[in-house]
Amino acid sequence: MNSLIAGNQSAFIKGRNLVDGVVIVNEVVDLARRFGKECLIFKVDFEKAYDSVEWVFLEYMLKRTIKAILRGFELASSLRVNFWKSCLMGVNVREDFMETTCNSLNCIRGSIPFKYLGLPVGANPHRMSTWEPLISSLHKKLNSWNHKHISFGGSVKESHPNPKGVSMGGVNGGRKLCWIKWRVVCQQKENGRLGVRGIKAVNLSLLMKWRWRLLNSEEVGLWKEVVSRSLGNGASTCFWSDLWIGDLLVCVKFPRLFSLSLQKEVKVRELVSVEGESYNWTFTWWRRLFLWEEDRVSQLLTSLTNVKLSNEEDTWRWMLDAEGSFSVKSAYNSLLKEIVTGTNLSLFEAKFFNNIWDSPASSKVVAFSWQLLHDRVPTKENLLLCGVLPQNSDGYCVWCGDICESSSHLFLHCKVALVVWYEIFKWLGVVIVVPPNLSIFFDCLSEAANSKKSKKGFCLV
């Protein structure tokens, strides 16, 4: 061996490393520099199989092969490749190879990033410049809709696919005043809101659709909060860390047993042996169990009594849907509770807010009634609170000039408003004592009807 392996080399000798050679070379170079000595370094590279390849010929054959593949595709599918409009791009490819390949294929030389199906490919997704063309395209489409001539009620109806359509106030195209918080607007109509879809929740719901597709493939992730395993043969379901029985993971429900188990990654099928109609579960622990721990094992076995295996493969189940299949709607409704938070309405408030949207009145009137019940109309009192009117301005009612102009006063308690309401009561043939606020007044009107048809008419009023 001494004749084959020299004693001063770094490889094939016990206790030495290839990096030792690098250290020695660095020391030699540093020594020559410090003392000004001449030093000639010859870096030897042994010839390998690839060194004998004629690369020019190989690249030429690769180009011909690419063109032959495209030609074969044309003959098989009757779809001809337009080389003049096609584009060739490379990643970490030599410039001369790209030039000669483009010339051989008679195509355009492209660069990365590029657009594919209208979306950027190869660009940095964290940069704003990546998405500016897409945002500009959306702005052009949205601006083509002349929503300036549509009432607030109409824009609410149109805003379900397009949240930008919700707008309130503004004079001559000027800056609009935000009367209601966006998180309030995004809540469902059953909660007295507008039911406009929140952009963040919709985006996450659509992204979850892609995650669900990945989840049902062989390479899966794990969403323990919203998915569970639908047990088939148990071959791919982890006994301890998959949600396959009950509402909790087995490792969470029985943490002590999980810590003692030697089978933490075991599948359900590997733990059970079937004898006729009986199932025998076999667990392995790293020590003998105490009495109270054996009681926990008994509880675990009791929870496994109704487990039945089949010949089908294990699948994922979407817990937010009764049928177990994923839907963007169920994901959105779940995310809405987490992302768009707000105060819940009482049963009394929810009742008349639901009646508002059932009214046969025009959307403009219904939307204004919704704003009025939320006290989000531009009365002098609200304009003063928003800082639109100066603090020293007159905030008295525009009709009577006696009291501050609030929503309840302007539409209910003002002398002019009372005259109008008494005439309406006389026309309807009802006697109603004017209540202190608009919410109770609306409920009184809807309850004053003695039939379904008349109730519809009262809601219209």
UniProtKB/TrEMBL annotation:
What sequence ranges are listed for the domain Reverse transcriptase zinc-binding? Answer: 326-421
Q: Name one Pfam family in it.
A: zf-RVT
Domain of life where this protein originates? Eukaryota
Specify the protein name: Reverse transcriptase zinc-binding domain-containing protein
